[in-house]
Design brief:
mainly alpha; 8 helices; single chain
Length: 220
């Protein structure tokens, strides 16, 4: 039970962040550039590393297959830890005097909980959301960095990022079939079900965000 304190403590820290804090605008800019640059590099590394493992070992749907590979275990562990670091997305918004939407808060908190459970209990299913999410994040944080650097060429992909975010969860639902019982243990399948419900709510939230941001404006 002690091991589960970390996501609980992390969530409490995330929700109790002092939203009134502000820093120098120039310092915030350079911190934001560094933050996005780090996440681009790390996300790309995760995607390439997992792709290499899948290419080498093949796609195998079996309980605790990939986690027997120490390199795979290390990648997923670091990717899990990065979900805590991604809290900084919200903190940077607060420092800039902006209020994050509910979608972002739910997304960050849920990611920490789901990746924690998958890593701690060695649920092989986690390779699929990790490889999809790292791919999407490589593009997403590249877009954020491009905007910070005032590169207008990246702005056209804004709408497609939300489409990718929606798509990753829709594709992910195919994994629920391949990691069904008895291929996966009953307990691990329950963890996958938690991930599934987390993803289902995200589909609704991202879908609403897409409608409000793009479709509704186009109708007007």
């Amino acid at each position: 039970m002690i091991s589960h304190i970390f996501p609980i403590f992390g969530t409490l820290c995330y929700l109790s962040y002092p939203t009134e804090w502000r820093i120098n605008t120039e310092a915030l800019y350079y911190i934001s550039v560094l933050h996005n640059s780090l996440l681009i590099s790390f996300s790309a590394w995760t995607f390439i590393s997992l792709s290499q493992i899948i290419y080498t070992e093949g796609i195998v749907f079996q309980t605790n297959y990939y986690f027997q590979n120490p390199h795979f275990d290390k990648i997923i562990y670091f990717f899990y830890l990065s979900k805590y670091y991604e809290y900084a997305d919200t903190f940077l918004l607060y420092l800039n005097g902006k209020e994050p939407i509910f979608l972002q808060k739910y997304h960050h908190i849920g990611a920490v909980i789901c990746w924690h459970l998958c890593y701690y209990y060695k649920v092989d299913f986690v390779w699929m959301p990790s490889i999809l999410n790292s791919f999407v994040h490589t593009i997403m944080y590249s877009y954020y960095l491009g905007c910070l650097l005032k590169n207008n060429y990246v702005r056209f992909i804004k709408q497609y990022i939300t489409t990718l975010q929606l798509g990753q969860f829709l594709v992910l639902y195919s994994a629920f079939y391949f990691y069904r019982i008895p291929i996966e243990t009953v307990f691990n399948h329950q963890i996958i079900s938690i991930f599934a419900w987390y993803g289902f709510v995200l589909i609704l939230l991202f879908g609403n965000f897409y409608y409000q941001s793009y479709m509704k404006k186009a109708i007007k």
